[in-house]
């Protein structure tokens, strides 16, 4: 399973193969993974440009559109201060999206409640994402606290936390993408599981045994994904690191 550039990685199937620990331990592990990733990126002279946290829960089946509409109010009641939009596609997909921006912390929260036709009913799921710009330890601590509080309001199950950190490695002159990816793997003490090499793009999936959580791909454990993309001759190199996989476009 190689996850390619230019698409939003689909976590819908993979998410439920993720092996959980207790809720509090999972929260702690997610925080540690982000902080370790940032530390290692800085060690490689990669400037963090943004970070994100993501959780998803399958809410099961709804009888019809009316059932979906009724359930939207309960979600909005648990997410005060969000601005909401509703949409429906021609093929019957329903989506409610809410956003809340914190200018002081420079973060944006997004809640997406989606339902799509499944046989004679609707299958629904809920997404919650927090995305921050740059890196400040103080702002990160406060943002993570907000994330945990909102997550506990929105989700009833022990949902898994996915993280993604993106950075700028600067001028690509002298940077060999795959070599840089291997250097990052060494920083994480991670073992490569699979990779994808292109002229201006490299993706490496790996396993760090120090992290308890993982998914399984091709019968191998995986909990780290690193991607590097060059933007033209002499342009910058963008580095994206996700645990256990990258869940955003890059």
From TrEMBL:
<dbReference type="InterPro" id="IPR036209">
    <property type="entry name" value="YwmB-like_sf"/>
</dbReference>
<protein>
    <recommendedName>
        <fullName>TATA-box binding protein</fullName>
    </recommendedName>
</protein>
<dbReference type="InterPro" id="IPR014794">
    <property type="entry name" value="DUF1779"/>
</dbReference>
<dbReference type="Pfam" id="PF08680">
    <property type="entry name" value="DUF1779"/>
</dbReference>
């Amino acid at each position: 399973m190689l996850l390619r550039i230019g698409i939003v990685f689909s976590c819908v199937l993979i998410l439920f193969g993720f092996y959980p620990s207790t809720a509090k331990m999972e929260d702690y592990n997610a925080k540690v993974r982000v902080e370790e990733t940032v530390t290692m990126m800085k060690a490689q002279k990669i400037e963090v440009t943004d970070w994100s946290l993501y959780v998803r829960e399958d809410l099961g089946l709804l009888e019809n559109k009316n059932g979906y509409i009724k359930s939207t109010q309960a979600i909005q009641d648990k997410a005060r201060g969000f601005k909401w939009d509703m949409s429906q596609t021609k093929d019957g997909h329903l989506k409610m999206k809410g956003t809340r921006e914190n200018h002081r912390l420079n973060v944006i929260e997004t809640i997406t409640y989606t339902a799509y036709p499944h046989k004679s009913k609707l299958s629904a799921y809920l997404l919650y994402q927090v995305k921050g710009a740059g890196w400040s330890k103080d702002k990160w601590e406060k943002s993570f606290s907000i994330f945990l509080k909102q997550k506990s309001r929105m989700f009833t199950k022990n949902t898994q936390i996915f993280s993604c950190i993106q950075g700028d490695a600067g001028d690509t002159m002298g940077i060999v993408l795959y070599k840089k990816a291997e250097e990052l793997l060494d920083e994480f003490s991670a073992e490569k599981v699979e990779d994808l090499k292109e002229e201006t793009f490299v993706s490496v999936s790996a396993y760090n045994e120090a992290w308890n959580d993982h998914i399984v791909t091709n019968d191998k454990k995986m909990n780290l994904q690193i991607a590097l993309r060059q933007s033209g001759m002499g342009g910058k190199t963008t580095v994206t690191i996700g645990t256990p996989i990258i869940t955003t476009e890059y």
